[in-house]
Specification:
With about 210 residues, this protein is an alpha/beta fold. The protein has 9 helices and 11 strands. Bound molecules: 1-O-pyrophosphono-5-O-phosphono-alpha-D-ribofuranose (PRP).
Length: about 210
Amino acid sequence: MSEKPLRIALTKGRLEKDTVELLEKIGFDCTAVREKGRRLILPIPQANLEVVLAKAADVITYVEHGVCDMGVVGKDTIMEMKGKFYELADLGFGKCKFALAGKKGHDFYSGYDVKVIATKYPNVARSFFEAKGMDVEIVKIEGSVELAPLLELSDAIVDIVETGSTLRENGLEVYEDIAPVSARLIVNMVSMKIRKQEIENLIGLIEANL
Ligand code: PRP
């Protein structure tokens, strides 16, 4: 085993929690991560791992640049950011979907006017409508995208739907499913070459415990 720990970037929040549970199921002692306080880099010495806690988009940036060997991030962020890395495992948790949604009972596809789409995921929205050959105007929103059709800024939204409660409680509904989303394990391309054995061993343990 190489001296330097393998660095794995985890998306802070839900995916972090699910990943820590998975690592504990493998048998790794994650006390340092559980008792992290405000620390952002935490060791799992027994597994020669170092956990880095970051926002989803930054997980991809750190893995792409090779300062983290691996990362756990949602397929939503991967679809939006793309980037050069290997996507090696579907971890099965963090399940939700991308959907086109808007006001209940509204016929989104009627009429010939260019539709306005609000989203936190402009690239995902653009590819979805490009594939349909439909010209739309995309407006980037930073959070609570559901507000946009309610305030009549947009005809619809492209967003993540998990339980569907946010849509339901705001009088909105799914018009069309776009793509399923779940947490993925990504690996830096160079790390995959130079630390292949360690990474494959870890992925083996992860897959055996999913
Ligand atoms: C996400 C998403 C929806 C909501 C869907 O937002 O953008 O608003 O969760 O979940 P549901 O189907 O279970 O209701 P998030 O909580 O990440 O907040 P944000 O929109 O402010 O980023």
